[in-house]
Model the fold of this input.
Amino acid sequence: MNIINQIYCRAYQTGFRIAIPFLPYRNPEILHALDDIPDLLKERSVNRVLLVTDRSIRTIGLTKHLEEILTEEGFFLTVYDGVAANPTVQQVEEARGLYIEHDCQALIGFGGGSSMDLAKAVGVLIARPDKTLAQLKGVLKVHAKTPLTIAVPTTAGTGSETTVAAVIVDDETRHKYAIMDFPLIPEYAVLDPVVTRTLPAGITAGTGIDALTHAIEAYIGRSTTKQTRRESLRAVRLIFHNLEKVYQNGNDLKARRNMLRASYLAGSAFTVSYVGYVHAVAHALGGQYNLPHGQTCATVLPYVLEAYGAAIYPQLKALAVAAGLCDLETDEAQAAQLFLHALRDLNRKVGIPEKIPGIRREDIPMLAKTAAKEANPSYPVPVLMDARELKRFFYEVME
Done:
């Protein structure tokens, strides 16, 4: 990246870092079970609810208990179950139509990050009916209170239950973009391990490393705070101690609860301190080829961390200590290499591939430009890279 662009990016990031203490960040209030939702809705005088989920989650019965208790308690429940792995503008519009048609007063996003993001995007359009999602993409453009939103994560990884963002795919271009503003943070997050117990091992792995990616990128970036560093380290510790357990035994509810907590902490951290090039590359790949976001991040993560080199050795040492891989007396470079080795080993143990099939060589220049446009100047990465430099990651992960 040329020096002029570097100065611009760092100045932009410095402005946001200085503003962090003055911005209205908040953490959602935690509920520990689905059974807590009816009482909450009654307290908020809500009786008409739109449940946003995907068809597979509903088919296997994960939403059944919630649907039953809400109906039994006399709530008027409408369900939108058309969420795709990478939610689109059209799907948001379909769900918004149901919300308006049935005079709903609140939203429940039930599922992975896609369902929660779609619910948040519906809330944005309800709050700003005069705008399209395309007009609201980017940072701090909503400027309006969204309806009561409750997030129920069924995967421990995306952190969407805590974030200011909803990531949506343009139906025509297939490019992903984020809408980021404080009203998008759900007011409540339901961390119920029971709804994660039937999660397939592959999704458990991908979403778990997605949470790890959030924690790592938040920690190694240049916009950390004391709180986000603490949250990131706690999340890394929980993930290294619990992900393999839940991958091998989905019924380990203690480990499931710990993973939900880790996802929440990592989400809280990156909401304030942002992510980096791992996410930019993964978003470009996911939007173009409709890939699962968590697994894509997991594959890309080691390559990007290795490319940062010695610039992040101090941070990697702290992460290695948190993960229990070494102690404070360990040499910095050695600790960093221990962490990178342990990360690749964890990926291998939970079935994350080192390469991504289907990437077309002729797409890579466009993918690199997409990633660079997302990341620069917003993401406070430890080492700046432009589209030309980002190409390397697409080549490295290409099968």
Q: What stands out?
A: The beta strands are 29-31, 48-52, 76-80, 106-111, 138-139, 148-153, 165-169, 176-180, 188-190. The chain has two domains: 3-22+197-397, 32-195. The chain has a mean pLDDT of 95.
